[in-house]
Amino acid sequence: MAVNTKSSGATIAATDLRGKALSWVGHHRQVCIESLSSLLQTWMSSLMTWLVIGIALALPTILYLMLVNVGEISGSWEGKPRISLYLVHEATEADALDLAHRLLERPGIESTLFISSADALAQFRSLSGFGDVLNTLDQNPLPGVIEIKPSITDVGQLRLQVESLRTYELVDTVEFDLEWIERLFAMLQFAERLVATLGFVLALGVLLIIGNTIRLAIENRRSEIEIVKLVGGTDSFVRRPFLYLGFWYGLGGALVAWILVQGSLLFLSTPVETIAQSYRDDFALSGPGILDSTIILIVGAGLGVSGALLAVSRHLSEVEPE
Amino acid sequence: MIRFDEVSKRYPGGKDALSRVSFELGTGEMAFLTGHSGAGKSTMMKLIILMERPSQGQVFLEGTNLNRVSSRQVPGVRRSVGVVFQNHQLLFDRTVFDNVALPLIIAGFSHRELGRRVRAALSKVGLSDKEKQYPVTLSGGEQQRVGIARAVVNKPPVLLADEPTGNLDPELSKEIMNLFHQFNQVGVTIMIATHDLELVSRMKRRELILDHGRLEDNAWQ
User: Fold this and answer.
1) Which of A29, A64, A198, B21 could bridge to B215 as Cys pair (CB 3.0-4.6 Å)?
2) Which residues of A touch B75 (CB under 8 A)?
3) A13 at interface of B, judged by CB pairs closer than 8 A
4) Mutate which of B158, B176, B188, B190 to test chain A, going by most A C-beta atoms within 10 A?
5) Using a CB cutoff of 8 Å and minimum separation of 24, what contacts does B143-148 make?
6) Taking residues A169-173, what's their average pLDDT?
7) Looking at residue A103, what is its pLDDT?
């Protein structure tokens, strides 16, 4: 038995810097793989954690995507209101066309479109599905309409414009859709805040779930931590497997969330698009794109590592060899 | 190499584990630490690897005053001391190889160097054929030898052993002691805490006797 220990007072054999770096990377890779395989070995309980995290992440994501879709619809109004002038029944088509033409001369009006009562009836018949009811009427109840697209967006000026439009003799009523658009935007803003709040609360929940799961893992591997500390493992060395564990919990949860989001959108897309297409024919429910998907995964993994850091910083120092 | 200077250790609750212990163990020296159970042997070991801090006095390791070592520097100190624990302290979900490799992984050895050193250490303790086994499948003596291999694999300048032959039959005890003797021959400073007085007298080495926390130094004449 040859003992080849170095001579007395030997410093700890030092490997070169490159070797150290390689070994450091190697250890990271090993811990990374080991922590994943340990999760897969106990896949039932891991799956439970992943599902909980996934649901918590999927909920705000789905709401957010709904908002994006609603925003897209409302965005097609370009935030500009339309003014509809409903003409008196006595107005002839010639009068109406003349008025539409004259209105163009006024400042603040970009375009006008005259829809005759006959056109309006035809449109109504095709869109509303009340064609049979209309047949029973002996005369066309719909007035002619001049639709105005204003070039101004200032609400005060628009109101003045609307007031002065009321003064035309041919005009019966003026309908102005700015208010409900404002209301819609206010509601959208409220919904955005709601989603953000919900997202924040649920992210906090994910953080705590992962933190608690890591705390249990630390508890389970107490003796291992003690031994590693006894033979000179640094804090970062001891911490490493738990951070990777948190990373995998977060990433797995995000993956579950992504699947849930895609699944629910797929499930919802047919009915939603049917409804939407009865209004506009170019609507398609948009799911998470590559960017959104990447963000979901990054947020998940980030929450995982943060939750693990939280648990590790609180509980790892408590584990000291005795 | 190891120096205790008027070291006292009082545990919470008022029990004096060590009182005013002073001694010096020179580089390359080998000594036995004996005494009844509860005499303070383990406490002395714990002070050297900073599992405990002294209530009074100073402990020096390789010239470093351990009182001045911050908790961040503790791992570095522990790496320069190989410790054979009484209860082995093995990782039961890792193979023998991985257990012995642990100090090297912590110290950042390259993969190839790691395999070479682990096999060398295992062959020294006669467990070359067990590297793929798990500690549970080994006998108490074999587990003890895995612990010894792990303690020396990093070639530390100081080796501490707490009852290293506690679980071994006389034949194996002798072998282990020979092993320590060989480490000592190449300059490793060794301190062995033991009950086995017969073994101590046979080895004819310096004996530090602890009695209720007080130290008696019996250098071998």
Assistant:
1) B21
2) 229, 232-235, 237
3) yes
4) B188
5) B143/B88, B143/B90, B143/B167, B144/B84, B144/B88, B144/B168, B144/B176, B145/B176, B146/B88, B146/B90, B146/B96, B146/B99, B146/B100, B147/B84, B147/B85, B147/B88, B147/B89, B147/B90, B148/B84, B148/B176, B148/B179
6) 85
7) 85
Q: Band the pLDDT of A11: cuts 50, 70, 90.
A: very low
Q: What CA–CA distance (Å, rounded) separates A137 from A118?
A: 14
Sequence ranges of chain B with CATH classification 3.40.50.300: 1-80+156-221
The CATH code that applies to domain A83-176 is 3.30.70.3040
- Smallest Cβ–Cβ distance between B105 and the set A9, A22, A27 belongs to A27
Residue B96: what pLDDT?
95
CATH superfamily ID and name for B1-80+156-221: P-loop containing nucleotide triphosphate hydrolases (3.40.50.300)
* Among candidates A229, A231, A322 on the partner chain, residue whose Cβ is nearest the Cβ of B103: A231
| Residues from chain A contacting residue B72 (CB–CB below 8 Å) | 235
Give, in degrees to the nearest 5, the angle at Cα B29 between B25 and B33.
65
pLDDT band of residue A297 (cuts 50, 70, 90) is very high
Domain segments of chain A: what residues? 27-76+183-318, 83-176
Residue of B nearest to A240 (CA): B106
The mean pLDDT of chain A is 83
* Contacts with A233 from chain B: Cβ below 8 Å: 75, 102, 106
